[in-house]
Write a structure and sequence with these properties.
76% of the residues lie in helices and 0% in strands. By secondary structure, the chain is mostly helical.
Length: 187
């Protein structure tokens, strides 16, 4: 299928060159497609990159759902999520492209909406864990949305801060940070 070939070529180029230095002309050439065919499937480079991110995000979420089943308590699920993120996202080939893309100002409203949807899915994973902890009396969080947004910001910051660290160092930093976070929501 031509669309998949375009997506795979784009993913490879974004990983190698980053978002900023990858052009649609590069993608046309690497996918052996015509310019018209690429634009038939994707309105813009932003649209194509978001498609790549969305595919990766869905795979990440499916893997996390399987991993999450190993943990019975909400506390263990948050610590498990920290470890999962530290290992799975370590040295992700698209990290540079993600950073370049998300730091760009003035995304169109449609692109911004898609970016928000991706972020909301991650926040929702954490919300479900926080709600489970409330139900199991592991903690008593009154503003689940706010605490989940804070946790998401913590994970995002950890990703940036530990980007060049070894997987083992990332696991240690993620685990310790989430232990502190859990201690804070228990007060």
């Amino acid at each position: 299928m031509k669309e998949n070939k375009i997506i795979q070529a784009a993913r490879q180029l974004f990983a190698e060159k980053g978002y900023k230095d990858t052009s649609m002309a590069d993608i046309v050439k690497a996918s052996n497609s015509s310019k018209g065919n690429v634009y038939y499937h994707f309105k813009s480079k932003e649209d194509l990159f978001l498609h790549v991110i969305e595919e990766d995000d869905k795979a990440w979420e499916e893997s996390w759902k399987k991993e999450q089943q190993k943990y019975k308590t909400a506390r263990d699920q948050l610590l498990g999520l920290a470890n999962f993120s530290a290992v799975r996202d370590a040295h992700h080939p698209l990290n540079r492209a993600f950073a370049e893309f998300y730091s760009q100002p003035n995304h169109s409203p449609a692109i911004q909406e898609k970016m928000n949807e991706l972020s909301d899915r991650y926040i929702s994973i954490i919300e479900n864990i926080i709600v489970k902890g409330n139900q199991n009396k592991e903690w008593n969080v009154s503003d689940v949305k706010q605490v989940s947004a804070i946790a998401t910001a913590i994970f995002t910051g950890l990703e940036i801060h530990t980007n060049r660290d070894s997987v083992q160092k990332r696991q240690e930093v993620f685990r310790r940070t989430i232990e502190i976070f859990i201690g804070g929501i228990n007060e």
